[in-house]
Design goal:
about 80 residues, mainly alpha, about 55% helix
């Protein structure tokens, strides 16, 4: 797994936190879930890695994305 923060990740997190704060009053549950999304994702990744170490699952994923943002929404990527 990569270490450190990819370019743009911190900005996206700040934007999501700002949006969550803005909608907190009208949609408190949605705001709470939005703020917890990254933690929940990381727990899922940790659990998958634990299961892989135990031989319970096989994770099929590239070790290196060759600098390509795997979450890109750009056509053709």
């Amino acid at each position: 797994m990569k270490t450190g923060i990819a370019p743009g990740v911190k900005i996206r997190w700040i934007i999501k936190a700002f949006i969550a704060d803005r909608i907190r009053k009208k949609y408190p549950n949605a705001a709470k879930r939005l703020q917890q999304r990254a933690e929940q994702y990381n727990r899922g990744v940790d659990l998958a890695e634990k299961y892989e170490a135990q031989g319970r699952v096989l994770i099929i994923a590239p070790d290196d994305t060759c600098g390509i943002d795997t979450l890109s929404k750009k056509p053709g990527m």
